[in-house]
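Hi R.,

Here's the chain you asked about this morning:
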Amino acid sequence: VQLQASGGGLVQAGGSLRLSCVVSGRTASSYSTGWFRQAPGKEREFVAAISWGGSGIWYADSVKGRFTISRDYAKNTVYLQMNSLKAEDTAVYYCAASSIARMRSGVGIDYWGKGTQVTVSS
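And here is the predicted structure, written out as tokens:
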């Protein structure tokens, strides 16, 4: 499974960004896809995940109500719509593929994409 993330950038507090993760590989449908982030000096943390079928969606408490994860099957892409951004959302965001249990624990993730930087200015 290959993951290609994009869409990061610089935005003012209160603004929005949409991250994209193109998921490819013949076994891609075996995995849920999600997003993690790592701020400077902090550990990588879970942000959101969506099951392959789209029926299961999970969010970290810190982003509930502000971020939305979705999947476009035709484009093999998972999106993370980020609204009402705060300075504390500043981090490198990583796309990942694994089971939901591993996503939520952050342990034993099967596949990682390269990160994309999100910077929120206050």
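One quick note: Residues 100-105 form the longest helix (6 residues).

Cheers,
M.
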